[in-house]
Amino acid sequence: MQSTIRIYSLLFAMLLVVCVRALATEAADTIYLGGPILTINDKAPRAEAVAVADGVILAVGGRDSVMAYKGESTEIFDLQGRAMLPGFVDSHGHAVMGGLQALSANLLAPPDGEVKNIASLQDTLRAWIEANSETVQLAQLIVGFGYDQSQLKELRHPTRDELDAVSTELPVIIVHQSGHFGVANSKALQLTGIDADSTNPAGGIIRKDEVGKPNGVLEENAFFKVLSGLLSGLGEQGLRAFASAGPKLWARFGYTTAQEGRAAPAIVEVMKKVAAEGGFKIDIVAYPDIMVDRDYIKENVSGNYTNHMRVGGAKLTIDGSPQGFTAYRDRPYYDPVGDYESFYKGYAAVTNEQVMDAVDWAFKNNIQVLTHANGEAASDLLIAAVKDATTRYGREDRRAVLIHGQFLREDQVDSLKTLEIFPSIFPMHTFYWGDWHRNHTVGPVLADDISPTGWMLQRGMMFGTHHDAPVAFPDSMRVLDATVTRRTRSGDILGPAQRVDVMTALKAMTIWPAWQHFEEDTKGSIEVGKLADLIILSKDPTAIDPETLDSIKVLMTIKEGTVVFAAG
User: Fold this and answer.
1) pLDDT tens across 86-138, in order?
2) How many independent structural domains does the chain possess?
3) Which of 58, 81, 104 marks a domain boundary?
4) Which residues are CB-contacts of 543 (< 8 A; sequence separation ≥ 6)?
5) Rounded mean pLDDT of the chain?
6) What is the pLDDT of residue 166?
7) 478: domain range?
8) Given CB 3.0 to 4.6 Å as the disulfide criterion, which of 128, 171, 214, 275 pairs with 187?
9) Long-range contacts of 330-335 (CB under 8 A, 24+ apart)
10) Is the same domain home to 181 and 306?
11) Is residue 473 a part of any domain in this protein?
């Protein structure tokens, strides 16, 4: 009997060896080794090698075990000491508008541009027109992106007259870095029907001079109306150009999943056409505006990608820009620059009833809703709406998302956790506008707690961090640096208690936003069976001085095993 047991044991052991060898002979297309590999998997945070086959991760672990998957045609990719991570997942951005940024004059202030005053803004526009004369004549439109009055020497928006000095023959529209303001020249205002008799649209302001003539500065919905009117003249080919250029810009910074965080149905249809033609090399998730066409959202929302594109849910926008003083606060602004009453708190882009109705509809139909809310009063509205809808329809896995939450109070963070609202936070604001917030929007005390990732970490919450491009370039290393250091342009640390460690900051750019998009089973970490969405960085972000994180370069972006960006 014992001899029989030994024979069976021996046969079983031999069979096991054969099975293991059979599994190991599944050849990889590529094996990556020779540098630190950060998996963002808490069970095995680091690996020596990764094997990929057919766009999927085949093996992760020690060098010898992964090399068992080497076949005759397997490529061995030597990292040469460079770091590999999972591809970044865009927690919030506007990839199509990012295409507009990529194809327009760069009006950003240093370090991302050269505009420091209105004269240099005008010169930048003129230089861009000269360098892109063929495009300008074809489009019959001049577009600049990224000016910021808080960084201009004059500390004000340019005017129509100052843009008329650039061109009176063609319409000129310049977009504020926040994306919530713009300035139009006389030709652009004329073409879009804005004159002295024009009244403010709901949720927007047409600024006028002392004699009642529009001065060119447009806020919120007034700006969106003029911009969309001008861009509609570009036709489908122009929109296709934007839709194609945006995701390419995202890939340069290591994003393998991008987001179009507020789209009209017409934009989504253009995106579908670009996708069908193979125009998207990375995944892009679109969220149509919930205030435009809810039937369209219901008909198109999907958890599956078609040609790297899908509709993920709906977008609701409650208020505006904190640095532009249009975020809806629960108290007056600290020291706003401009003609504001002492009690000015900003304003909402929609009514309370519209917020409650939109969130109710999303929950009733089990559709994920992303909600832009910057000021405390705007976040109060979102929290009240989600609380009411949860009472009505129960706690299904809808993963409602708060976008931005710049001025969150600590009690509101508690409410987000209780109601299971996922916060997609904007710590990059601490670099670009931290000094402005301290001096003008909320003051030196409350400024320390903008984008309060520290509070969320203390509560064990997942959160995402984003760039909101084209508010700034989709610069992943700037996002990482700002989340960890919270350094402002002046070098100040804005809210040391809200800083988080590097690994937490990396999770907020990978596995947690993958969860936000219901994609944690396929993206966000380097694990067997997940998509081979990978990036190669010049340095290991966990092994350098955190103050130098912004010096790291994205050297390569790999989507499902295929290189979609390589530096140089």
Assistant:
1) 999 999 999 988 877 777 899 989 888 999 999 999 999 999 999 988 888 87
2) 3
3) 81
4) 36
5) 92
6) 95
7) 236-566
8) 171
9) 330/375, 330/376, 330/377, 330/380, 330/409, 331/376, 333/440, 333/441, 333/442, 334/439, 334/440, 334/441, 334/442, 334/443, 334/446, 335/439, 335/440, 335/443
10) no
11) yes
